[in-house]
Every structure is written in C-alpha cells, then in structure tokens.
Design a protein that fits this description.
Oligomer: single chain
CATH topology of the largest domain: Alpha-Beta Plaits
Structural class: alpha/beta
CATH class of the largest domain: Alpha Beta
CATH superfamily of the largest domain: Reverse transcriptase/Diguanylate cyclase domain
Order of helices and strands: EHEHEHEHEHHHEEHEEEHHEHHEEHEHE
Strand order of the largest sheet: 2-1-3-4-5
Radius of gyration: 35 Å
Number of domains: 3
Length: 482
C-alpha cells in the first residue's frame, strides 16, 4: 500500500473530508490546510509528495499558491492538482499557466481524482527516482509568505511589461531603422553596457548594429564584439563580410580597453537562427541580467521574423523575378521622385534606355531559356558597370532602363558607349552542351531632363525615340536626344 503524503488545501470542510477519506482508503497519508498561507506552511514543514488545492481560497488563492510552490526550487517538483467548480476554458488555461500539473472540476468522481493522484505520484517517482525534494524546514511567518508572493507577482509583472515592450516593436517592422532605434532605447533603459549589439541575418551577409556608450572602445574591441555576436551562428570565418552599422553612440577610436564581459541571447524561431542580441560591459552581468536578455530574445525573434518577411515581400514586389534587378513598377516610382527633384533644384538627370538587338531571332533560334540566360547576364553586366547610386531596371521584355542623377546627357552617352562595348564582346553562356558562347549587341537611347518637360513621360519618350533611331540606323549604337 502506498504511504505517500498528500496535502489537501480546501476551505470547504465537506469537500476536504470527502477527499481525505478517499485518499486514506487507498493508503495515502494526509495533511490538511484551510487556506493558501497555512498550506504553504505545511509544504515547508511537511514536505508532501503531492498537493491538492482548491482555487477559491481565502488569503492566498489557488493560482497564487500554485505559483508560489512552482517558483521555489525546493518545492517546484511537487505535483499540484487544482480543484475548481469553474468550468470556463480561461480558468483552465490560467490554472495550467500557474504551473498546475492537473486541473480537475470538483464534480469529477473521487475515483478519477485518486487515479490522477496515483498517476502523478508515479510520474514523480520516475523523474526523481524516489528522491524527496529538500525543503527548508522552519517557522515561516505569514508576512514572509506574502512577501514572497509579492516578489513573484512583481517579477511576473516586470516580465510581462518587457514582453509587451518588445512585442510593440512589431509596429515598426516596415521601418528597420525605427525598429532598431526603439530596440536600443529599451536596452538602454534595462541594462548598463559599454556596447549593445543586434545581429540580423540576411541572404547576402549579416549586419551587426551597434549602440556604443563608450568612446574608449577600440577597433580591436569592436572585433571582439563582432566575434561574440556570431555565437551560435556557425564558423565566425564565414562571416568575414559582416556589415557593421553604428546606430547611436560614439565612434570607436584606437585606444584599447579591457575586453568587456558579455552576455548573448540567440534569436531563434522554429529552429531557424535569425541572429542574436549581445551586451558588453567592464563588469560581469548577473543571473537576472542573463534571464532578462533571454526573455527579450524569445519575443524579439518573432518581431525580427516579421520584419524580414516584410522586407522580403517588399523586395519581391519591386524586383524582376528573372534578372533580380528592379522592375518597371519600382522604376516608375523612382523616376517620379528624381524628376521632381531635378525640376525643383534644376539638377541634372539622365535616362538611358537600351534594347537587345534581334532578341526575337535569338529566342526563335536558341529557345526562350537561352533568351532568359542572356537577359540574366545582361542585368549582371549593368549592375557591375553602373554606379551604386544609379537605378537599373528591366523596363519590359528585352528593354532595360538606367536612371542617373546628377549626370548630363554627354556623361550619360559615355556610360552608354562603355556598356555597348562591354556587352558586344561579352561571351553569353550557351545552354547547349559544348556550344560556343553567344554574342549579342544592344542599341541605346540617351535623354536628359530639360525644363520644358512636363512629366516623366516626356523624358521616357525622348529616350525611347532615340533608341528607335539607333535601331533604325543599323543597331549596335548609341543615340543621344538633342
């Protein structure tokens, strides 16, 4: 017969006697308490093997009592069954969130309750292999118990507040800069640090964002910080191209300080590592700091995932699927902005329109897949030979556009001629095995914004008209709108 000790916490004498009788009938030893505070005394002094508690208790309700038990290392392994007459799903949810092992309605039969008690006792014995939890025996005052309860709920409120602040960052998933600024404000409010790092993974290369609170950090210190931020992301060497952006704080100098202490929390979601967050200081961080950073990391991972999904959707919406350069939609948006800027400040703006010569014949001869290959390589050539500040877009079919700010048509013609020559000698890979590389030429039209133009349509028509002239005059040439 089992001799385990069961604590029943119940303010209803009738209910308490019924449970006590059923348990003793099965050979269990029983101790009782009429409220949560007395129950906690019995837990400390009696070391029960299992607790059955009502929820509606005076002084300290069942949820609070359960939280208190589960929050103490010395008592957290004791199974807790919460009894209630409340059948709402929210009540069951809150009971389980309080740490209860079982949540049972009072109208459940005593046989079922005893069965659950036996099952939990058996589970516990398997986990701890017959070892009894160690409790600190002694006289615990009611005030001490309430102090522990207050501490526990202050801690839960603190954690809930932090979680709320981090989740609110989701408001800024469409603006990475704003999200970063708001994140570092939270970190500054919660922690002391010399530097705070926020590593975000991406397809091309990771980016490390830094908030520096100390201008005595050296370049070597920054390298140490970068290496620490790669924790959990694989071999640090593969991240040699990590981009570093200082969001706020002082620029670092050449003077080295003592290597700072650090703590790191990975941003993991569904086994995918999205980056991590790190803190660096000249003093060691305590366990509370580590737990808080870990808490932040869990919720921040969701926000970062939303941000990356938003950015990916935005990128796809403005990118040509084949060539991976900007599409016509994005081109139309940007040319409007640049046109208005040129009009307002009387600045230079040049548009280059280019078209692959005899592209239809190429498709008919070699197939559309080969034609697509030529388009992909043409986009690559344009990206490699145009300034990073210039806009390159696939305008439609085999036609491409290059928009150059602060460049006049004479300078634009020089760039166009350079592109024509590059493409004319470029060996476009052939899809057919052992076939010679293909050759292709382009015709180009160049036009510059002028004060008599009323809209972007005028600029596009001007470039298109001379592109047509280049085609008409024999192709493989550059024509400039006069």
């Amino acid at each position: 017969m089992p001799k385990e000790l069961i604590l029943i916490v119940e303010d209803s004498r009738t209910q308490l006697q019924a449970i006590e009788m059923s348990l003793k009938k099965e050979g269990f030893r029983v101790i009782t308490a009429k409220d949560g505070i007395e129950g906690y005394h019995k837990v400390i002094t009696g070391s029960p093997d299992l607790i059955i508690s009502d929820i509606n208790l005076p002084e300290l309700n069942g949820y609070q009592f359960c939280r208190l038990i589960k929050n103490e290392n010395t008592t957290s392994s004791i199974p807790v069954i919460l009894l209630t007459s409340l059948g709402q799903k929210q009540d069951r949810f809150w009971g389980l969130k309080a740490g209860a092992d079982r949540y049972i309605l009072k109208d459940t039969s005593m046989d079922t309750l005893v069965k659950e008690v036996k099952a939990l006792i058996d589970e516990k014995s398997k986990k701890i292999k017959g070892k009894q939890p160690q409790s600190s025996v002694g006289d615990i005052k009611d005030a001490t118990i309430m102090s522990r309860v207050n501490y526990l709920f202050d801690k839960l409120l603190f954690e809930a507040t932090i979680m709320g602040e981090i989740k609110n960052l989701a408001t800024f998933v469409n603006d990475r800069t704003m999200l970063l600024n708001e994140f570092f404000k939270i970190m500054t409010a919660l922690f002391d640090f010399k530097a705070s790092g926020f590593m975000v993974m991406s397809e091309d290369s990771p980016t490390l964002y830094l908030d520096l609170n100390d201008n005595m950090l050296s370049e070597e210190n920054i390298k140490t910080i970068k290496d620490n931020c790669c924790t959990g992301l694989g071999d640090v060497k593969q991240f040699k191209d990590i981009k570093i952006e200082i969001i706020s704080g002082m620029e670092y100098n050449t003077k080295k300080i003592h290597t700072p202490y650090s703590i790191t929390s990975a941003l993991n979601i569904h086994k995918e590592c999205l980056g991590n967050i790190s803190l660096f200081n000249d003093r060691e961080y305590n366990i509370n700091n580590k737990n808080t950073l870990s808490l932040i990391g869990k919720d921040l991972a969701v926000v970062v995932k939303l941000m990356l999904l938003y950015e990916e959707n935005e990128r796809l919406s403005i990118t040509d699927g084949l060539t991976k350069i900007y599409n016509r939609r994005y081109f139309n948006t940007q040319i409007e902005k640049e046109f208005e800027k040129a009009k307002r400040y009387n600045s230079k703006l040049t548009l280059i329109m280019l078209d692959i010569d005899h592209f239809k014949a190429l498709n008919d001869t070699y197939g559309h897949q080969q034609g697509d290959m030529v388009l992909v390589h043409l986009g690559k050539i344009l990206k490699e030979n145009i300034r990073s500040i210039d806009l390159i877009a696939r305008y439609g079919g085999e036609e491409f556009a290059v928009l150059m700010s602060d460049v006049d048509k004479k300078e634009g013609a020089i760039v166009a001629e350079k592109l024509r020559k590059k493409i004319g000698v470029y060996p476009f890979p052939a899809l057919q095995k052992d076939a010679e590389p293909l050759k292709a030429t382009i015709s180009i039209g160049v036009a510059e914004y002028s004060a008599d133009m009323n809209s972007t349509d005028d600029l596009v028509k001007s470039a298109d008209s001379v592109l047509y002239k280049a085609k008409k005059d024999g192709r493989n040439r550059v024509k400039v709108h006069e």
